[in-house]
Amino acid sequence: MWCSLRITSFLTISFVWISASFQPLPKPAALWRQLHSTGAPKNAARLPRNKHFPLHGGSRENLSSADRERRDEEKRRNDRKDEVIIGRTSARRGESDYALDPKATEEEYLRQASKEEQEVFYSTERGMELLNSLKLDEAEKEFDKVFTIRPNAYLWQAGIVKFYLGRIQEAADVFARNARTYETKFGQPASEERIWRDACELKFLKSMSPSKRKKLLEETSDIAALIKPIPDFASDDVFSTETRKVMKLTRDLFGATVHSDMNNEILARAKLRSLCGSEDKHPTPDRKMWKLNAWFYLGLHLDVNGDVEESKRCMKMALKMCPSSGKSDDIVHTLPLLHMSARDWFDDSEFDEDPMIDDYSTEDVEFAPQKPNLASYAYADPFIEKSIKNGVQKMKFEQLKEALRLRGLKTVGSKQVLQERLFYSLMDDSGFHSGFAP
Q1: pTM to 2 decimals?
Q2: How are the residues of the chain apportioned to helix, strand and coil, as percentages rounded to the nearest 5?
């Protein structure tokens, strides 16, 4: 009997153990196995993403820090889903931005503007329309109204009007004030204002006879007493922020002329002339208006220095580059037409294919430097080469010596030797490093 009882107990325990061995896994583990064997089940999205998910149950909060952060971020996104404010947060799917309507924005501004601000706005608009229509006297009256209401208004175009009306000192004052306003507010160089202010100084001095100019400078001892200056920046690094190539070269050109720096004047003029390119029957599009601006400012520089004929030719080329023949709301397109109208330069002559062709003539040239064989690729730009050659040729003997001295070069030799020495040095400085400069 005792033996039967032991056998019965043994069989019962064995049956229980075998039955336990064949029990199905807990549901989470079964789902995990199904996910890796037969594809994702319908409720697989409910499973935690942690690769250490417990196969035999356990806490669902047993997540890594990365998974907890992802879970919290999803929760935050769900919480913010209904807090979208167009224009302040992300836009809802299917929503569109407010329509851009400059006219409506302008009207809204005027509704909220004070009476003084409205008068400044309307006088500025009328003045610009009159300027683009070449009605300078009427434009000046509108711009003067603006300055009467708001003396520190930023309106540098008013200086252009006064410049072409012959009020050079008043124009210089407008450009200087506007340059200070712009540079103080934005910390960027006011290139246009500085260029035109320097043009005023050159025009003012050129309009006098040499004896009168000398006497005036002796009496005043400083041109700043006659033409209002623009204070320089504490660091020259600010001027390097000018990204518009034509404006940077133009500012260098006028600045060098004002400071009697013939080396940099020749270099800047040559580079500007290079940007103008060659003229053929099918010129390339001037999308960035490099050619238009380069021709215009070359012409302006020649004009304020008294070279009327060359200036006239450059202005004709600038006008030719204008897509609307100067009839535009864009002041850049208006300037060539304005200059020629103010100077009364319109005639029946044809446009010159190359308005500065005389600069490149080799006739009667006192020096003709030969390009070394090894430097054949150094002078690949004929416009820069010929412009520098022409500039050096026009320099007097004493000017050549001074230019060479400033560059740390020898100043002994004949005029032709000095010309060649300066020519090679300037060519190397313009970017064509031949290694043949003396």
Answers
A1: 0.67
A2: 60, 0, 40
